[in-house]
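FORM 7B: Structural annotation worksheet

SECTION A. Query
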Amino acid sequence: MILFIFISGCSVIGKKPSGDHLEKIMRSSQWDSIREKFVNRNQEEYDLMIKNFDYWGMTKEQLFGRQKNRFPKSKLPEIKPDLKKFGQTNNLSYIWLGHSTVLLRLEGKTILFDPVFTNASPIGLFGKRFQKPIISLDELPKIDYVFLSHDHYDHLDKESVEYLFTRKNIKFFTPLGVSSYLIGWGLEPSRVMEFDWWDEYDLGDFKFALTPGQHFSGRAGMSTNPTLWGSWVLLGKSERVYFSGDSGYDIHFKQIGEKYGPFDVVFMENGQYNKRWKMSHLNPEETVLATLDINAKSMQPIHWGMYNLAPHNWNEPPIKTFALSKEKNFNLLMPILGEVVNDFEKYQTKVWWENIN
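SECTION B. Predicted structure
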């Protein structure tokens, strides 16, 4: 599998940081000079998880697992949004496009998180979309900013970002090192900025910060953590947004909530989990804990609903999270694909995932 990527998809893998760029990002406090990679707060425990990882067992579970509902049996419901109207609103609003791709309006600007409009893997057998995107790349409205959370294929897609390169007005923001892929694929260096954890930046219309996560990085074979991962906080004049990217559960959610909360809406990872990689991703119970920790008024689950990247049923994340939202009494936003969500407090989630035949 790894050999296939190297032979047929080197350009898809992209260029890791090197030279002066590598020397610059190595000054980060998240870089471990002994391990020669970016690390988590509790990297020793994380490395132990990797050392004991049963790759063969995971492969068998992924390919031949007993779960019978890994893929939806029919097309997921969707609605074609009025993008012209969406692009003109000044109210905080968003459209969930599946998995972790989110189109957001904040302070009159249009923002795109982790744009992936193709499959989530360069290997044809894995990461196929459940269905075509409700919005094609050429149908996207004017985009002002693209925020990327890390370098994995289901969050950083070469084809999608290369299309966005053609729109000259767009600025890209990434964690440390991730800019090397974009520049290697042809983006002008002046259009991308990269950040370390807790770095803040003022765009004038709103401020933002890259905040911590607990994850890993790499686009070829075994993870070597050549680039940083993270989550994003967006601070408007009166409204606050959080985008989790990928992360296991740890103290950073409470730290972010204490520093920047409360948040009007958070986009929180909620799928593709497994006990084998517990420290890398949130399961639904942990998604709820993180939502409460970060002090969220409303929560939209992401990282589910478009790909089968873990051996659980495709609809297990919403089933569990919806039940927990009733138990913990927090405002859950689970729109269908393409639906515009803006009046968060009055939004009524419909259990549409239970009607997929």
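SECTION C. Observations
Residues 316-328 form the longest helix (13 residues). The first strand starts at residue 31 and ends at 32.

SECTION D. Sign-off
Analyst initials: ____
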